[in-house]
Design goal:
This protein is of the alpha+beta class. The chain folds into 2 domains: about 90 residues, Sandwich (Immunoglobulin-like); about 45 residues, no CATH class. Strands 1-2-7-6 form a 4-stranded antiparallel beta sheet, with no helix packed on it. Strand 1 and strand 2 form a beta hairpin. The radius of gyration is 26 Å and the shape is rod-shaped. This is Nuclear movement protein nudC. It is found in: Cytoplasm. GO terms for molecular function: unfolded protein binding.
Length: about 160
């Protein structure tokens, strides 16, 4: 069993390690690499956590701190912010990521590209519920109408579009 607890969002993994009461930051030794982590105290031989991370992290955006002189809290910024991690260290037991209940988020929290994709999906879902064409279907219809105008010599009366 690991000497730590952890939680995650799509953006980051937070590792919480209980340390002896009165621990100060100068006693902590934390090494975060792009795909590795090691955390210990200079007064302790065995690391609390040491190994290969499930996936890459942004080293420059990852941090650690001692909270209330009794917890070492490490925040790892994920490189791939579209996946759930089944474990922090690859040798640790996995969790079932299909059971994760993501926190609610606002569209304004998303980057512009993801936000546009989510808005399109929401629009398409509403259109389907109302029996209306999706954005892609509307675009195809418009392209077909434009093609018909460009080619009046062609007979499209028997054409079926699905």
């Amino acid at each position: 069993m690991p000497d730590y607890n952890w939680k995650q969002t799509l953006q980051e993994v937070t590792v919480t390690i209980p340390v002896p009461e009165g621990t100060r930051a100068k006693l902590a030794k934390v090494d975060i690499g792009p795909k590795s982590i090691k955390a210990s105290l200079i007064t302790r031989e065995t690391p609390f956590i040491d190994g290969e991370l499930f996936n890459n992290v942004r080293v420059d955006d990852s941090t650690w701190t001692i909270v209330d002189q009794k917890e070492l809290v490490i925040t790892l910024e994920k490189v791939n912010q579209t996946e759930w991690w089944p474990h922090v260290i690859t040798s640790d037991p996995k969790i079932d990521v299909t059971k994760i209940q993501p926190e609610s988020s606002n569209l304004s929290d998303l980057d512009p590209e993801t936000r546009a994709m989510v808005e399109k999906m929401m629009y398409d879902q509403r259109q389907k519920e109302q029996g209306q064409p999706t954005a892609d279907e509307l675009k195809k219809q418009q392209m077909f109408e434009q093609f018909k105008k460009q080619h009046p010599e062609m007979d499209f009366s028997n054409v079926e579009i699905n």
